[in-house]
Structure formats: C-alpha cells, structure tokens
Design goal:
49 residues; 41% helix; two-stranded antiparallel ribbon
C-alpha cells in the first residue's frame, strides 16, 4: 500500500491529478531504479544492476 494505505492510483485520483501528472510521477519513480525505454511494443523497464 502507498500513502495512508492508498495505492498510487487512488492517491492520484483523490488528489485530482491528471493522467499526465500521474504518468510523469510514475516515470520519475521508475527512473530512480532503472531505465525506461520506449519500444515498438510499448514502454520497457530495465532495472539497474
């Protein structure tokens, strides 16, 4: 669970975050732990070793 027992999605919608704001937040969190790469099939997460 996330903040105060909420998932990130619940927190974002409860605090009126737009899809773009939620997407950017998620991308920034992922980038702390690895690389996010756009592919023809969609986004791919490659964790740091």
């Amino acid at each position: 669970m996330g903040i105060k027992g909420m998932t990130v999605r619940d927190w974002g919608t409860e605090n009126l975050k737009t899809f773009e704001e939620q997407f950017e937040f998620g991308m920034e969190v992922l980038k702390r732990f690895g690389e996010v790469v756009a592919t023809e099939e969609g986004w791919k997460f490659v964790p740091f070793e």
